[in-house]
Amino acid sequence: MVLRFLKTNQIVHLVLIPLAGILLWLPGLIHPESFHFFAGEAAMPLYRITGAYLIKLPFLSAFAGLAVVVLSAFLIIQISTRFQFLRSRSGLPGIIYLLTVSAFPSMHTLHPVHLASLFVFLALISIFDTYHHSNTLPDTFNAAFFLSVGSLFYFPTIFLFPITWISIAVLQKGDNWRLLFIPLVGFAVPWFIAGSVYYLKDMLPQLFSVVQENIHTANINIINTFSFQLLSGFFIFLAVLGSSSILSRYDVKKISSRKYFIIFYWMVAFLVVSILFSRSVGIEAIILLAIPFAYFIAHFFIFAKNRFWPEMLFYLFLGIIATVMIIG
């Protein structure tokens, strides 16, 4: 059975994930296409000096995007293994993330959200590292700093900043008032550096303009298409099943695992807010949602007692992904 194999923690996953990524991205590598960015989307400070240079080189952009997504899949697995909130050393969360992120051919490029995701992973590691640590100031600062760096690639990452404060209440014990102030400092530093560089180059008005475009520009992209609604709807359905699975085992989970999942739920909440209230958030929102959802869905598949329905749902998930990729 495919699902039973994927749930195991075997060394073969070191080969399976890159191979699966190449197969999923192969059409984009053979016939690469340029992504149609809305005004200001590709002009965020850090993306402007990294990925934006590859816009006119579609193949290199697709190859770099694939490399980042594969790395992200391994980070998904690494976080799960390191903090053990699934209580199962499985490569399944990384596989689910890779499949979901790779489902849309239009995202087979080095989109800013792919680069921002790397810093979201680093922020999550820093946040989880604060649990039961005596000195949490450095990790709290780092979490806010990484989210800030991510927002300099993909602006809506800024909506995740409040989880640094949420983590203080959920994971940390102490009444150090500086903990409330440190996230602001950590988040401000990258933007202060970026603003200073733009100021020295006499380009500060341009930075303000780019930020305004990333706030106000309507980015419907392919959200209203059948393929996006089909996959996102089924993805959410699986995440709901995963949440039910988590809640059914909540009492037997370690306290740390419960707290980590609370952070993931807050993460989902802030991302939903960004989707509902930010006109610039488009199809790429599913890339960030795939981070917590991959753990929810993996939890359902790993701990489901019935073998038939999880297997059938996983095959249906693969079928929907194949359909979406064919439709384009």
From TrEMBL:
UniProt cross-references to InterPro entries, sorted A to Z: DUF6427
Protein keywords: Membrane, Transmembrane, Transmembrane helix
Bilayer-spanning residue ranges: 12-30, 50-77, 113-131, 143-168, 180-200, 221-240, 260-278, 285-302, 308-327
Organism domain of life: Bacteria
Name this protein carries in UniProt: Beta-carotene 15,15'-monooxygenase
Annotated source species: Prolixibacter bellariivorans
